Amino acid sequence: MSQLKELEKKEASFAFGKKERKLLTDPLNDNNPITVQVLGICSALAVTTLLDKAIVMSIAVVFVCAFSNLIISVLRRSIPKSVRMIVQLVAIAFLVTVVELVLKAVNYPIYVELSVFIGLIITNCIIMGRLEAFAMANGPWKSFLDGIGNGIGYGIILIIVAAIRELFGKGSLLGYQVLGDWYTPNGLMVLFPSAMFVIGILIWIHRSWNRSLIDVS
Amino acid sequence: MHSTRSTIFFVLVMTTVVALVLAFLFNGLKGTHERNEIVYNKKAILSAIENELGESISDMSDDRAEEIFSTKIKQTVVTVAGDEVEESYIENRYKGGKAENIDLKKEKKLDEDEKILPVFEFNTDSGEKYYIASVRGSGLWDDIWGYIALEDDLNTIAGVAFGHKGETPGLGAEIKDNEDWKSQFKGKKLYDENGDWKSVYVRKGGAKNPIHEVDGISGATITADGVTEMLDRGLKYYESYFKTLQG
Amino acid sequence: MGELANIFIKSAFIENLALAYFLGMCSYLAVSKTVKTAFGLGLAVIFVLGITMPINWIISEYLLSENGIFGMDLTFLRLILFISVIASMVQLVEMVVEKFSPSLYNSLGIFLPLITVNCAILGGSLFMVSKEYNFSESVAFGLGGGFGWFLAIIAIAAIREKIQYSAVPGPLRGLGMAFLLTGLMGMAFMSLMGIDPGAFNG
After folding, report:
1. Which of C80, C131, C194 is nearest residue B222 as measured by Cβ atoms?
2. Strand, coil or helix: B117
3. Cβ separation of B22 and C196 shorter than 8 Å?
4. Residues of C with CB below 8 A from A42's CB?
5. Cα angle C145, C42, C15; round to 5
6. What pLDDT does A1 receive?
7. ipTM for the predicted complex
């Protein structure tokens, strides 16, 4: 085998080669699930009132996204076409139920606070989107990484929004008072519509910084 | 191409695997879930006397909460008529047979003569006694509830803790989150100097009577009215029992 | 009857699934570029919500709860069963729409099957369980919620159609603007909070 081919072969088999790293980093910027692809916003809003809720939610989404990608990728050649969508949904619902049961045992107070929104991870378009766009056509390890990448891309936005809302809405972060008594909490931040404003502004900032994403409609 | 038979086979296998794994996980974790729920409720009750305890509830470990409950809290269950209820009777309705197991949501639907009420008597190391009552009412979106701690004169409020099912964060949810608002209740009295029932009124715009009223919450009038109603009705259920304690 | 009307009004206006809880945002933002598509999608959502709620209620009460036919607590299967019911109903709706209005079917395109993952649908069923509604209350909640979502998406589509001709700064154009608009509409709807529908029934 020629030198070039040998190098290529080495790259392809290295688990963390350039392509694999791109799977992890793409969703953080160019292909961010929330600000660019506009997916999975639903749960994002109710869950970003407090930072700890957002963190738990992000971890849950990374887990479900990565493992559902893995499962579907492993099964991709065996899934009968007629039931493709249902199989994907059941796989996701299965993983989300696992997350729910584990969370209820490990951190009951946060489970109670998140309640309905854990179940709504199933309808988080990001997860379904990645299954269709990637896991159905790629190998297990790559799909797993893609799931992690997208999950983290989603989680970062969630955490930023939650940090802003908790800091300005209550003067605290993770429950610890950060801003002193001089700060009168901005009540609006705690209410749901503020999440929309914060994301809208984040998109504005993201697109100003990365001009290639401007909507030419 | 997949035949119908292999499709059905695939679906059946997947369904079975999924159902089995989840059933296994569910049964394995059930015990933990139940204990978590009980400790969660206990911590909620303890938050009514957080100041008197001198410990932070949010930082408290589950074991510590259980320890306080078993050593310092005496649980009693009473009827609206003022009589104590046997543990065996409670066991019929709620597994565990203790005050902590009573589900006030279910009790709310019963008539006064059928209701049973939990009473938590807290004895401090220095010999002070507090009585914690449990009340439940309606907020704006859904149910709200409260644990009201009374000093041993059974008239003065020592502390409160509120919870809600779905009130709006920043508005109705303030009854749970806003420490300043809750601290207003301390020192308020349920009866006036003549011994007449007054309860505590949450007044929109600011309290006028320093003994029987507290300030309202901006933007959460309906929830606040729910609190007033809940205290007035819910605490009155305990009147007969409290009289037996005083008499 | 008054109680049901209460729930309908509450879920349509005061607890609007789109503007108070921000559920179903993906399709909401993607399909609201024209009023025509928004209208079609909104109707489909009302229908799917109205049908899946009662079915999911029956499943929850009679199959999964301890009082059901299996006599065991099977609530851990709830998510899987709910989403399967929703997926099947949506496929049904797809077939019906394709048959009776091929033009609508084409203009909605992929967004019709996407109703399956519309958080508002699953969210509605999960809220119904958490609020412990009975059967008729679930139906009222489903129809009301659907109707409210329908109104919300038409409203924002109407605004976005008009805004196309305004001078919005580049990076804010399109998506960013839609978010801000939705936030403002959400605030407007918050003013409806505190209205006690019971007051209208006298």
Report:
1. C194
2. strand
3. no
4. 22-26, 119-120, 123
5. 25
6. 45
7. 0.77
Instruction: State the total domains in chain B.
Output: 1
Contacts of A97 in chain B (CB under 8 A): 22
Cβ-count burial A59-90 (b if 16+ within 10 Å, e if not): ebbbbbbbbbbbbbbebbeebbeebebbbbbb
pLDDT of A78 higher than 50: yes
Q: At how many degrees (to 10) do helices B4-46 and B62-72 cross?
A: 50
- Indicate the residue type of A77: R
**pLDDT tens sequence across C39-79:** 888 888 888 888 898 999 888 888 777 777 776 777 888 88
Is residue B223 domain-resident?
A: yes
**Contacts for A9 with CB less than 8 Å, ≥ 6 apart:** A1
Average pLDDT, chain B: 84
Distance from CA of B145 to the nearest CA of A (A): 15
Nearest to B7 among A82, A109, A169 (CB): A82
Domain enclosing residue B139, as ranges: 37-246
Summarize pLDDT for A24-46 with one digit per residue, the tens.
666 666 556 555 556 667 777 77
User: A167, A140, A129, A105: which is closest to A27 by C-alpha?
Assistant: A129
Contact C193 B19 (CB under 8 A): no
Is a pLDDT exceeding 90 seen at residue A64? yes
Indicate whether B22 belongs to any domain: no
C194 and B140 in contact by Cβ < 8 A? yes
Q: Which of C15, C80, C131 sits opposite B18 (nearest CB)?
A: C80
Task: Identify all chain B residues contacting A102, using CB atoms and an 8 Å cutoff.
Answer: 25, 29
B142 — contact with chain C (CB < 8 Å)? yes
Contact in structure between C121 and C48 (CB atoms under 8 Å): yes
Is B136 a domain residue?
A: yes
Q: Model's pTM, two decimal places?
A: 0.81
Q: Which residues pair with A98 in a beta bridge?
A: none
Structure tokens at B54: 């001198």
Tell me if residue C67 falls in helix, strand or coil. Answer: coil
3-state secondary structure of B152: coil
Domain extents for chain A? Answer: 18-198
Which candidate, C140, C130, C55, places its Cα nearest to that of C92? C55
Q: What residue spans of A1-83 are helical by DSSP H? A: 3-13, 18-25, 41-47, 51-75
Mutate to test the interface with B, among A67, A108, A111 (most CBs of B within 10 A): A108
Closest Cα to residue C81, out of A203, A15, A96?
A96
Size of interface A-C (CB pairs under 8 A): 139
Residue B170 to residue A190, Cβ atoms within 8 A: yes
Residue B229 lies in a domain: yes
Compute and round to an integer the Cα radius of gyration of chain B: 22
What is the Cα–Cα distance from A103 to B58, expressed in whole angstroms? 18
